[in-house]
Amino acid sequence: MSRHPLPKRSLRDWFDHLASWLETPQGLASCRRIQHRLRSNGRPATPPVREFRGARNISIWRPVGAGGELAFERPATGPFGDHYAACQRFTAKKAPATSRICFFGESAAAGYLYAPGLTPAQVLEAQLNSFGRQGGFEVIDLSRTNERIDTLIETVESSLQLDPDLFVVYAGNNWTL
Fold this sequence. Notes:
The protein is of the alpha/beta class and 177 residues long. The protein has helices at 11-22, 25-40, 107-110, 120-129, 149-158; strands at 62-66, 69-73, 89-91, 99-105, 137-141, 166-170.
């Protein structure tokens, strides 16, 4: 059995060709099928969750039902891992007398290379709560690697569903690219 050698192309040409294919509906559909197969790994699909009327995604976090209450959950980590976001799940309803802070940004804010063990949002929450204020502070980490200004704006707008008291934006590190 003979193999047909691939035509000689530079690596850049191959990546450009792949990117062009992924921009097509067929390429995107194929990629999603592969992604689904890799994620399921032979396990049954996740059962559907109760949808909440009017709730919408906050960036990568999807609205889900948690004991009859609205929560947001990020998709499962891919088979090769990711550095997309450390915060896995958070509830929409905040605790009484708690100040809720939504924390936004890209890789530096997400704690790239230290997350999920240590992130700036975790440090901020610990520092604020060290003052011993009644009710305390809750910092919801909505930072993620590769954040861009257009998606950041959408994330901030959709985070209003969480009834935040304050926004902290730590971004702009990669925007000159």
